[in-house]
Amino acid sequence: MLLVPEAAQAIIGSRLDKPAQDRLEAAARAVCRPIDDKRGTTEFRIDVAAVLTRRAALIALDRARTKLMAKHHIGAKVNGDPVEFLCETEDTLLDVLRDTLNLTGSKEGCSSGDCGACSVMLDGRLVCSCLVLGCEVGGRSVETIEGMAKGETLHPLQKRFLESAALQCGICTRAFWWRARRFSSERPARPSTRCATGWPATSADAPGMTRS
Ligand code: FES
Fold this sequence. Notes:
- The structure is a single chain.
- The chain is an alpha+beta fold.
- The protein folds into three domains: 5-69, Enolase-like, domain 1, CATH 3.30.390.50; 71-147, Ubiquitin-like (UB roll), CATH 3.10.20; 149-212, no CATH class.
- It contains six helices and five strands.
- The protein has helices at residues 5-11, 18-31, 42-69, 93-100, 156-163, 173-186, and strands at residues 72-78, 81-87, 119-122, 125-128, 141-143.
- A five-stranded mixed sheet has the order 2-1-5-3-4, with helices on both faces.
- It is elongated.
- The structure holds FE2/S2 (inorganic) cluster.
- Residues 108-111, 113-118, 128, 130 line the site of FE2/S2 (inorganic) cluster.
């Protein structure tokens, strides 16, 4: 294996044009200290190192271009804002949210749709983002846990959880919030009541929710 960090330093921030390639070769020549024996002279080995360094850079550039062209360009709405991103076919929505859009509130627990730590709303439907492909959300609307609070103002459910210290380790808490919000929105609002299990039986937004 040929590692020439000095060559990489010589082209950082520049296009891999002919002058940059020449700088690569020069850097490789400057740091290469091969032996001289009957299988090859020092000069020959330095030439080989320089050529291989140039060739490796061109191959890396070609691979990067191929990978970029294989990506999908997706436009969607996330938490009400229009976003655009590039993703590979196999990237999940969870990958895109966390790695591309930097929305790290959705967590990866099981990656198999069991734990709910990656829950998001997709067009108003609760889904596990680890089971949705990023390229499937084109033109659709995604709501992540970052969109549940409004700025510094927590959603009423989040406040209730906080007041009750209902957090556990925190990884799956967003799943509880989403499930509780959906559960609440599906039930008729009955302020100041609670169901037998202790869940709030009112709409999540109803201020009359009681604490279990
Ligand atoms: S990571 Fe567990 S359901 Fe998605």
